[in-house]
Amino acid sequence: MRSYPPSDAELVARARALPDHHRHRLRELVADLDDLRRRMTRRTSSMLTPGPANVVWPDYSDEALELYHLLHASGVAVRVDWGSWLDRLDDLDRAHQASHHVSVADAVRYVSAVLHRDRAVEGTYGTAIANGSLLRSVAVIVDARATDDHAGGT
Predict the structure, then answer these.
(1) Which of 59, 89, 90, 153 could form a disulfide with 8 if both were Cys (CB 3.0 to 4.6 A apart)?
(2) How far is CA 11 from the centre of its chain?
C-alpha cells in the first residue's frame, strides 16, 4: 500500500490477496470465537496495585490471541487514520448487529481501527469480539473475491 490513507481499491486488493492458508485459518478462528462468544462469560484478570485502585484487563482465549496476531501477520491490519474512524466504530457495530452489508474496504478499516484503538483503549478488541462485529468484519474480508460486487466502501 502506497497511499495514506489507503483507498478502497487498495484495501479490497489487500483482502483479496490473503493467502489461502491465512484465509482458511481466519475462517476457522471466526467460527471458533463466534461459538465461544455465544457461551462466554466475562473473564478478567486483575493485578493489585499499591493503593486503592486495581488494574483490570481482558483475559483472552488462545483463539482470540491467535486471531489478533494473524490479523497483523497476514497484513489485514493496515495503517488507517483510526482516530477519525473512532466515531464510525459505533455506526459499524450497529450495522453489523443489524446484519447490514459492510463493504470489504470498510471491513478492513474496521478491523484495523479496532486493533489500533485497542492499543490505547484496552478491551476494544474484546468488546468487538463479544458483540460479534469484529468476527463479521473478518468474515467479510475472508470471503472477498475478485468478483465481489460490494467491494467499495464509504
Answers:
(1) 153
(2) 14
Contact 85, 109 (CB under 8 A): yes
Say which DSSP state 144 is in.
Answer: -
- Grid cell, residue 21, equals 492458508
pLDDT tens profile 79-95: 877 677 666 666 666 66
SS3 of residue 137 by DSSP: helix
Q: Residue 19: is the preceding peptide bond cis (ω within 30°)? A: no
The sign of the CA dihedral 59, 41, 50, 123 is positive
**SS3 labels along 30-67:** HHHHHHHHHHCCCCEEEEECCCCCEEEEECCCHHHHHH
Q: What angle is formed at CA 31 by the lines to CA 87 and CA 60, rounded to 5 degrees?
A: 65
| pLDDT tens for each residue of 62-76 | 899 999 999 999 999
Residue recorded with cell 458483540: 131
